[in-house]
Amino acid sequence: MIDPKIRDENSDNRRRRVGQAIKTENSVGSRILGELSSKNRDIGWLSQETGVPPNTLRDYIHRGITKTEAAIAISLALNMSLDELLVGSAAFGSELVPKGLEPEMALVPMHDVAVSAGYGAQAVEAGVSPESLGFPSRWLRRKFGELKSLRVVHVQGDSMMPTLGDGDLVMIDISRRDPVDGIFVLRVDDQLMVKRVLFPSSRRVLVTSDNRDYDRWDRMIDFESEAARDSFHLIGRVVWVGRSL
User: Fold this and answer.
1) Strand pairing partners for 22?
2) In sequence order, which residues have a C-beta less than 8 Å from that of residue 240 and are 6 or more positions away?
3) Is the Cβ–Cβ distance between 208 and 139 less than 8 Å?
4) Which residue has better confidence, 8 or 144?
């Protein structure tokens, strides 16, 4: 049996090695190193989790992160919001008000539905985005309850006309994924989309467009097939729509 004191000393030594191996005056780099130290992890681990080469990570730590995809991957690996990683504060869902926004505003992460599944689907679920949209926090709480489950998504294309149009903004609630008919942001195969989802039975789901010009795309997914189940993932239910007149 390992003496608890030895285990604690080993943990302390790992934290010191992370801090001694790399030092930086860059604030983003300092936050990355701090999270690695608190998790007893190193650059090699972060490279494996993100797919970013170790030398590139060291460059980000010293000079700052230059690619959005890398920032998203690092924040997901470290279990941080993008605000926490890049700014040092978790503005979304808190009472912190970024400069330029009126008091009592909440920032909801905003995403582009045209992104591919990969980091796109993960980023929507995690609320990791370089963009956000401000809403009155009291109104959000009154209408939708828990703020941290809300995301705003840009609609592209006319497949959901007349319900949703090209350029519309939809708010989704990622806590609402029950198999009930409705409009959802979802992943099918390797594509992120906004579609109407119907559940004719507990074993089948129909993904369809409101615009009948797109009925050739309609897809019935049979949950009897493991491959079909893996190809389908609900991200969140659409609960609000905003558009320009």
Assistant:
1) none
2) 143, 144, 170, 171
3) no
4) 144
